[in-house]
Design a protein that fits this description.
The chain is mostly helical. The protein is built from seven helices and two strands. The structure holds calcium ion. Pfam families: EF-hand_1 (PF00036).
């Protein structure tokens, strides 16, 4: 297929786990992937993340393969934050596939909206942290 997701999961093996009917129907309607693709990627996802969510460490391990030289951490942090839609510190299969769908199948507007919205969230968080540091250093 040649998408980023298929490249990420290449060679990660098979599992007997399947998406339940409701999740499968939801993902078929909210992404542009077919049921068969979704089931295959879910099996691969569950094999690496048996509890159903991807930690930043696993995410970094996967993305680290794309950066054999240098430090991938800043990029991984940014991408992980983009994928972790609800900011609970883990990426679920739904979050992962939704992000992959927008970045591979979305229109230019959808991609820009998705990327800009996430970037603004990260910048807002960074500004809040910077203001807190400034306040702690100079205003006390
Ligand atoms: Ca999450």
């Amino acid at each position: 297929m040649g998408t980023a997701a298929s490249f990420l999961f290449k060679g990660m093996g098979k599992s007997s786990s399947k998406l339940n009917r409701n999740d499968l129907q939801e993902l078929e309607s909210t992404t542009r992937f077919e049921a068969r693709q979704l089931q295959k990627w879910y099996r691969d996802f569950i094999q690496d993340c048996p509890d159903g969510h991807m930690t930043k460490e696993v995410f970094e391990k996967i993305y680290g393969q794309f950066f054999p030289v240098g430090n991938p951490s800043p990029f991984v942090d940014y991408i992980f934050n983009v994928f972790d839609a609800n900011k609970d510190g883990v990426v679920t299969f739904k979050e992962f596939i939704t992000a992959i769908s927008v970045t591979t199948h979305g229109s230019i507007d959808e991609k820009l909206n998705f990327g800009c919205r996430k970037l603004l969230e990260i910048l807002r968080l960074q500004m809040t942290l910077d203001i807190d540091v400034f306040r702690n250093l100079y205003l006390q």
